Amino acid sequence: MTLAALGLYSLLTLLVSERARELGVRLALGASAAQVVGLVLAGAARLLASGIGVGLLLAIGVARLLQSVLFGVSPLDALTLGATIATLILFALAAAARPARRAAAIDPIETLRAE
C-alpha cells in the first residue's frame, strides 16, 4: 500500500511540475485554487480508477489459484475486496493532497513571465 501511495505521489508531483505553466495560466485567467486542486485530484481519481479496475480483474483471474491456499476466506470475499479498495482510496487521497496544494500555490505572474 505504501509503495502504491509513493508511486502515485511521485507521478502526480511529476505531472504537476510538467503542467505548471498550464496551471499558472488557468490561475491567471481566473480559475480558483479550489478548481486547480479539483483538476489535479480528478487526474488522480482517473489513475486510481484504472488501477482499481485492473487490480479487480487480476484478483478475479487469480482467485482460482489462491483458493487452495486460503483457509476460512473466499478469494472473492466482498468485504475484504471492499476494505482493500477503501484503504487504497484513502492512501491515494493522502498521496494526492500535497501535489494538489502545490499546484494551487503556483504564482500566475511568475508563470506568465516565464512565457
Any descriptors?
single chain; 115 residues; mainly alpha; 82% helix; elongated
Structure description:
It is a single chain. This protein is an all-alpha fold and 115 residues long. The protein is built from five helices and no strands. The chain has helices spanning 2-18, 20-28, 33-66, 78-104, 108-114.
Give me a quick take on this structure.
With 115 residues, this protein is mostly helical. Helix content is 82%, strand content 0%.
Q: Report the count of strand segments.
A: 0
Coarse shape: elongated
User: Low-confidence parts lasting 5 or more residues at pLDDT below 50?
Assistant: none
- β content, as a range? under 5%
Category by helix and strand content: mainly alpha
> How far apart are the termini?
39 Å
What is the chain-wise order of helices and strands? HHHHH
Task: Provide the residue-averaged pLDDT.
Answer: 88
The number of helices is 5
Return Rg in Å.
Answer: 19 Å
The biggest beta sheet reads: none
- Percent helix range: over 70%
